[in-house]
Design brief:
Blueprint: H1 2-17, H2 22-47, H3 56-92, H4 96-112, H5 114-132, H6 136-171, H7 176-189, H8 193-208, H9 212-223, H10 228-280
Helix pairs in contact: 1-2, 3-9, 3-10, 4-7, 5-6, 5-8, 6-7, 6-8, 6-10, 7-10, 8-9, 8-10, 9-10
Length: 281
């Protein structure tokens, strides 16, 4: 919220007041991100009594545990920009109009689907806490409920985008080629975020159950074999719209794959936890 406020205040001042144009927008974004960092550090410091003295031995011990999760998590998040870069490069071959349309779509997605991006962060602690408590039934139910919630939200937002596509085109003053790609996204592609949402949910599940490498492998799989061949074929056959559709095909495939993996994993852990409980009795 603090970052959004800073961005909203500085954007008109730097872009129009100081006549900095695009450089002003970039500067405002930079200041907003610095604000987010400072606010985050402030609240962490207050709640954890930081700064404090550091014991090198404890730090080394904690670092090994952190790295096991952190490195796969970082690699997981790097995969998506790589896949998007290939899609952008493919669309760029069709001219400035489709690139402008794809850029506008890239601005719409975080606003329209912000809920499903946030969901994976919100459900993670719930899964982690119940996993630590050995309540695997609740872990599995959290996964199922999150998948259902994400799907319903995406369906509702996709319907809203379908109705609002004309307003989006008007707001961004999109030219015909850009407008065509936006219409295609709002009509056919937005609903594929059901599977994107499922992938986000399963990533959070893998990470909190101690399988972060699974998230890394599936994300890179989607960004490579789930993106490159489908986008290339789509672009060859149907142009910029085909490239966008090709990306959606990979999203659907890997969304289904990761859901099956997550359901099987939680079922196996539930069976193991039930067996251990019966043995103790």
């Amino acid at each position: 919220i603090a970052g959004g406020i800073v961005n909203a205040v500085l954007d008109p001042i730097l872009i129009f007041g100081l006549d900095m144009g695009v450089a002003g927008a970039a500067t405002a974004s930079l200041m907003a991100r610095i604000t987010v960092l400072l606010v985050g550090v402030l609240y962490v410091a207050r709640s954890n009594c930081l700064p404090c003295s550091i014991d090198p031995r404890e730090f080394r011990k904690d670092l090994s545990d952190i790295v096991k999760i952190a490195i796969p998590a970082v690699l997981t998040n790097v995969a998506t920009p790589v896949g998007n870069a290939y899609v952008t490069a493919s669309i760029a071959g069709f001219g400035d109009g489709p690139v402008a349309g794809f850029s506008i779509i890239g601005r719409v997605i975080p606003v329209a689907f912000g809920i499903i991006f946030a969901l994976s962060g919100a459900m993670g602690p719930i899964i982690g806490q119940n996993f630590g408590a050995g309540n695997m039934q609740r872990v599995r139910q959290t996964l199922i409920d999150s998948l259902l919630f994400s799907s319903l939200v995406v369906a509702a937002i996709s319907l809203l985008l379908w109705f609002a596509q004309g307003y989006i085109i008007e707001i961004f003053h999109a030219q015909p080629e850009a407008a065509s790609l936006i219409q295609f996204f709002c009509t056919f592609i937005a609903i594929s975020f059901v599977f994107n949402g499922a992938h986000f949910v399963t990533n959070a599940t893998f990470n909190n159950l101690g399988y972060p490498v699974w998230s890394t492998l599936t994300n890179w799989g989607k960004a490579t074999v789930g993106t490159i061949p489908f986008v290339w074929l789509g672009a060859q056959w149907f142009g910029a719209e085909g490239a966008l559709a090709g990306q959606a095909v990979g999203t659907v495939i890997f969304g289904i794959v990761t859901v099956v993996m997550a359901l099987r994993l939680t079922q196996r852990l539930l069976v193991e936890a039930t067996a251990q409980s019966q043995n103790r009795i």
